[in-house]
Specification:
Residues 67-111 form the FBD domain. Residues 1-48 form the F-box/LRR-repeat protein 15/At3g58940/PEG3-like LRR domain. With 173 residues, the chain is of the alpha/beta class. The chain has a single domain, classed as Alpha-Beta Horseshoe (Leucine-rich repeat, LRR (right-handed beta-alpha superhelix)), CATH 3.80.10. 29% of the residues lie in helices and 18% in strands. It contains 7 helices and 5 strands; from the N terminus they run E-H-H-E-H-H-E-H-E-H-E-H. It has a 5-stranded parallel sheet with strand order 1-2-3-4-5, covered by helices on one side. Helix 5 (90-102) links the parallel strand 3 and strand 4. The longest helix is centred in the middle third of the chain and has 13 residues, at 90-102. 25% of the residues are buried.
Length: 173
């Protein structure tokens, strides 16, 4: 729930890879992300799947993310961000701006389009937006791609996500 405080009983320091599905265009959903991330202080790989919604509810902009305060795992732990099902919505872009401005140790960000772009102009507009974002880790690289699973759900199944034999059960973007 948004605003839930972090305590020793809610922290899970052993988690190194975390996957979240969140509708970043829905204010109440997006406001839960900082609290959830604070419960996983040692996450080094973060997968965010942008949930689809028919309408935006409330505006969550960059200022809103900054008001949520410092999120330690973003600032000093996360080396890889994989953002699944990117559509270029206002909420998604606000989250990415906040993330890039905060992530000091980020090495790589992979942005996976929800659907194959319809034109080179669409790709260029997304590149321009993402490329112009100020980044705390200037040596990090940002890759844009389309998802390898046309159904979009295989890597997010409980069975696959709970298989701990691969290094990252969600890496098949």
């Amino acid at each position: 729930q948004a605003g839930t405080g972090v305590s020793l009983s809610t922290m899970v320091p052993s988690v190194g890879i975390l996957a979240l599905e969140v509708r970043l265009e829905v204010r109440n959903d997006a406001k839960m992300v900082p609290g959830v991330l604070r419960c996983f202080p040692n996450v080094e790989t973060l997968h965010i799947k942008s949930g689809k919604t028919d309408q935006s509810t409330g505006k969550l902009n960059l200022k809103s993310w900054h008001e949520s305060g410092t999120i330690e795992c973003i600032r000093s732990r996360i080396k890889l961000l994989v953002f699944h099902d990117f559509r270029g919505g206002r909420g998604e872009l606000a989250f990415l701006k906040f993330f890039f401005e905060s992530a000091l140790v980020l090495q790589e960000a992979v942005i996976v389009f929800a659907a194959a772009p319809s034109s080179m102009e669409e790709v260029q507009s997304k590149l321009d937006i993402l490329g112009s974002m100020k980044r705390a880790s200037e040596t990090s690289i940002v890759l844009l791609t389309t998802r390898s699973d046309p159904q979009g759900g295989y890597i997010w199944s409980f069975k696959i996500g709970s298989d701990f034999s691969p290094a990252d059960p969600f890496e098949n973007y």
